[in-house]
Design a protein that fits this description.
about 240 residues; alpha/beta; Rossmann fold; Four Helix Bundle (Hemerythrin (Met), subunit A); 2 domains; six-stranded parallel beta sheet; 11 helices; elongated
Length: about 240
Amino acid sequence: MTIKLITFDLDNTLWPVNQVIRRAEETSATWLRENHPDVSARFNVSALIAVRNKLVADAPQYQHNLTALRKAALTHAFLACGYSAQEAEHSSNAAFQVFHDARNQVTLFPSALETLEHLSQRYQLGTLTNGNADLNKIGLAHLFRFQHSSESIGKRKPEADMFYAALRDSGAHAKESIHIGDHPREDIGAALTHGFNAIWADLIEQPWPNDMPQPPYRFNDWKKLPALLEEIDDRSN
């Protein structure tokens, strides 16, 4: 086997995401407070999270589209404060845009950019994410042949849909492909289940679940990834 395709998760794989989301929530809340104080008074960050949780409980398909979920929660808040349907849709889109712009202000893990640039010269690269990061806004889209998300595909990992889309777009076989991500079940377990090779991005000091087999490969420093890929290629040939 020669590796032809490498797919990457995004959040907590290319960049740490928790602080990014917190900052984006705060930025959006500030915008709401400054532009719609009536809505802000009734719906702070915690209240909007509660609305989103209720929406997912009532309509689980929202799990596959975080953008639609956030917009729906914001629309609910505006409607609850007496806005017309048209006003609520317009204002929720504006509030979401503020969040999404901040959500895409990320700081890559050390050496991630240089490593991706190096790998893109040898392999086909793609991204598979359950989130709604925008690589065009972040400035990385040129490094990847394709970008798939739960929003574009309609199903989240660990479902097979994104992995199959990656094989379709690359022309590679699963055994010629490696998925790299931080989530034990949604990335590593899913990739192995669907016939991909897998490398665990062990970059945020999270524990590996006791009820899962240990990952076949892992790295904790982006500088180590090219050598690990060479090792995997050598072992399989």
